[in-house]
Amino acid sequence: MKKLYYILAFMAAIFLFVDCGNASPEGTKNPFVKVSVSEKTVNCASGSFEVYVSSNTSWTVTAQTPWLKVSRTEGKGNMSIVISYEENYKGKDDSGVYIPGDPRTGTVRISAEGTIPARVSVKQTSRTFRNPIFRPMPDPYVWREDHGNGAVYYYAVKSNGSGVNLGKSNKLTNLGGTKEVWHLPKQSGSVPVWNRANLWAPEMFRIDGVWYIYYAAGWPSSESKDKYGSDYHTQRTGVIRNRAEDPTTGTWEDMGMIYTGDEYVPGIKATVDNAIYAIDMTTFELNGQRYAVWSGNVSHTDGKQRIYIATMENPWTINSNRVEISRPDMPWEKWDSSINEGPSVIINEKAGKLFVVYSSNGSWTSKYNLSWIMLDMNADPMNPDNWTKSKNYVFWRCDNVSKNDNPNNRDEIGGVHGVGHNTFTKSPDGTEDWIVYHVKRYKENGWDNRDCFIQKFTWNEDGTPNFGTPVGYWEEIEVPSGEPL
Description:
34 strands; five-stranded mixed beta sheet; mainly beta; five-stranded antiparallel beta sheet; 3 helices; globular
């Protein structure tokens, strides 16, 4: 079954434009040679993997390390090659368990006349894991907390029906289980409760030693449709607070709805009527000022989703009108629907740049992808002109795997589609940057089969993030630096 997935994935690389759309040809007559993956991590057992070579000329393949072998030594144009690797064990212990060898790295070189050679670097190590790390887990959120003396924990936050679930683990690659720590209030008496249904996308932060979880909720779909003509138009943002040292303990206090409208006055109390649709709220502090960023509708009657920002008086109070900083105005942002949502903030201190990474298109589609808007950290975030949008999407993959390819819903098969709604974290030792995001297992529209993936990312010379290509289901990846055994 795994081999079937890899065949499908590489066929998708060839025929990407058929179903997933918008991939463009190389568009050059100069000779070139490229590979689908430049780095690969494998475990200590022997095995193999495929690499897709893209070229407009003839090329040769050379394994530059004795423990690596290739299925062909030459080719022309576009085709796949298989790279095999030998096992790497020192022997067996007294119990007959294999002892892993020391980590080692090898290279396969693909070259063509008149081009810069492409290389595939292979690292073999016993310290690997495979995605997904949590399933199902749409809109995943992970907070890393360093408690000192080497005690680092990851808190996984997710919605579970009408509840907020929270888990705790010392491993990013194994978040363990979660349990409910807070539940939406039920209707009591004749006064309507604004947040009694549809709890979405909770995010947790520790601000000045206190824990906060931002979430979206609203009325039951039927009531929202009666008022606004839409199932979810009453979705607003709320926040809960916990003063305990450990957020999995203590009591979560409901701090109410956060104002997200266009008619702010000091002391305004947020309501469904004066606030406007607001989901996926996140927060950051810059130059002594805290800001809220979220996905909101243009108005009560215009349901186009855009990214908004506002200043905050404290973690539960916005004290300004909202300002639009991104709308879906580029082709890759509206392949199937005009949506910007799921903002997440990442800062490159060295480069002095702040990024809001967000998702475009429908979250129920294979077209869901990531882009970013960038701010100079000395500039005013409330001025839309200070934000610069990426020149293309920055993270997307579509393997064209259908539910029909997997009638028995076996775990061994799965494709990567609709990557998005991400967040960021660090490795346990703080030396590596990691992106956390969800993946649709199949290309068909729907909100089912969304699982949590993680992978390491780096930074380009110009200070922008380089997320690379989304990894595949069950692909071997080296564990985060400093992760305990």
